[in-house]
Amino acid sequence: MEVSKELQRKIDTAYERFRWAAKEAERLFDMPLVVRYSGGKDSDVILQLAKESGVPFRVTHNLTTADPPDNVYYIRRVFARLREEGIDCRINVPKRSLWKIMRETLVIPSRIMRVCCSELKERKMPDAPYIVTGVRWAESAGRRAKSGIAMVHTASAHTRGGEQVAAAAGLLTTDDASSRRLFEQCQMRGVRVLNPIIDWSDDDVWSYLASRGIEGNPLYKEGWTRIGCVGCPLAGRRARELAFARYPKLYKAWHDAISYVIERRRQMGNPMFLGGKEVETVDDVLGAWDGKTLKGGWINT
Q1: Using one digit for the tens of pLDDT, what is the confidence trace for 261-281?
Q2: What are the residues whose beta carbons fall under 8 Å from the beta carbon of 52, sequence distance 6 or more?
């Protein structure tokens, strides 16, 4: 299957971005690029582009312990094929599960307090100073405002709503040489990030995968539009309900952990409140995920 001239232009540009970043990774760190793989369609695209660009790279996946089991199986199959091709790939297992984090910190993840992402999904790995992700502007207005083709996150951090957040020291939003020089002058510490398909649309992603004969994650064929953690507060209610129905053990893990946090905070005299009313049930929390404001309980105080 052939692609359109416009998509071919984007593919060629992505190759150039990979090759430029690979040279930077070698020059700055004497290490290859690290493709951060999630099992989603965007990850399948950047993985294939990395192969086609001819640059040295390895692949990693960060387990979150709330991953859909079918996604974990898919990733294992993909990684098995990569190893047959001689490509270094590894699955990183966290020191603490999401459920243990919630019980130990008395924090319930939310759209604002994304402690699950910071410690599990997006945790920094010491041997991955230059990573590649499938972040795209088309996914949200927030990503268009905060993400560029390449970024530098400093080693220092600031606090936002009780969460440690890496500070962006540099942002490359265009491919022109002058912007690249400015980006190269940013601080050397911290993690560098390449987003080679930042300007791709959903149609671009699916057309590219079809042209390469890549079917992608089987969950898409079952109606899933997003491959992420089961129970993610950022997912819509319908998507979350479907995931909970498919994976009842993960629903129980969420239910038990949330119940523990609610009860423990009540015992400590620091309960959570929603609209002036004390939070009493797991359903109260799930309701807050759907857009209501939950106060006095997302963070330790």
Answers
A1: 999 999 999 998 877 788 889
A2: 15
Can you tell me the distance from the alpha carbon of 237 to that of 247, in angstroms, rounded to the nearest whole number?
15
Cβ-based neighbours of 42, under 8 Å, separated by 6 or more: 134, 135, 136, 197, 205
Q: Within 13 Å and on the Cβ side, how many CA atoms surround 95? A: 5
Task: Give me the pLDDT at residue 142, please.
Answer: 56
Q: What is the distance of C-alpha 193 from the center of its chain?
A: 12
- Mean pLDDT for 7-28 is 95
What predicted TM-score, i.e. pTM, was given to this entire model? 0.83
Spell out the residues 6+ positions from residue 169 whose beta carbon is closer than 8 angstroms to its own. Answer: 152, 153, 154, 186, 187, 190
Task: Give exposure, 88-99, as e/b (b: 16+ Cβ within 10 Å).
Answer: ebeeeebeebbb
Structural element, H or E, at residue 73: helix 69-84
> How does pLDDT run across 112-155, given as a tens digit for each residue?
777 777 778 776 666 788 999 998 988 765 555 555 676 665 44
Q: Which residues of 194-230 are buried (b: 16+ CB within 10 A; e: fewer)?
A: bbbbbbbeeebbebbbebeeeebbebeeeebeebbbb
Alpha-carbon distance 245 to 256, whole Å?
16
| Closest to 121 measured CA to CA, from 198, 53, 54, 66 | 66
42: tokens are 């965007």
Which residues does 65 contact at the CB level (< 8 Å), separation at least 6? Answer: 94, 97, 98, 99, 120
Rounded to whole angstroms, the Cα distance separating 89 from 61 reads 8
Enumerate residues 6+ apart whose C-beta is below 8 A from 97.
65
Q: Which amino acid is at 291?
A: G
